[in-house]
Amino acid sequence: MLTVKDKKFVTFIEKQALEERIAEVGREISEEYRDKNPLFVVVLNGAFMFAAELMKNVTIGCEITFVRVSSYSKTESTGQLTEVLGLKESIHNRHVIIVEDIVDTGLTMNKLLFQLSTQRPESIQVATMLFKPSALKTPLSVKYCGFEIENRFVVGYGLDYDGYGRNIDSIYVLAE
Ligand code: XMP
Ligand code: MG
User: Fold this and answer.
1) How far is ligand 2, taken at its centre, from the CA of residue 48, in Å?
2) What is the pTM of this model?
3) 89 part of a folded domain
């Protein structure tokens, strides 16, 4: 049992299972993007820990950059994406992989994909650590996914509850 602010959480995905699966995704991307010099666009803050682990397992030439979007408050998705901040690189004609912590309703990712596609990248795919398929509110193709999970609130490994819990080295789920 773990307490983050006023809520109790229980173990959900252990560090070892998480990192083994992330390593597999890294190897898969390395094979599929060999000679493509992909640009990884990491969505801060949540994806920082997933991205670090993933990139240790990407063994091909690539670039990494970081953006910020904001669409979430407390434990409910508002689905409101304000802006994409911090993208200095041109993604025109690049093979882009968006690195996200979690796809919930998919609204954030959908808007991000739309905004980035206006720059006409050569290709654009999504790599997310966690995916809640039953929460999806918009059609979305998720090429690389660490774990599909049920529609429950999780923290740890970059994911926060009201700003806290991002430093936890495994995934915890809200206790019922
Ligand atoms: P949508 O609904 O747009 O949301 O796909 C994506 C963003 O919402 C956050 N999110 C969560 N954060 N535990 C969290 O700590 C969760 O269970 C959760 N579900 C969604 C997250 O920031 C993600 O980028
Ligand atoms: Mg996020």
Assistant:
1) 9
2) 0.94
3) yes
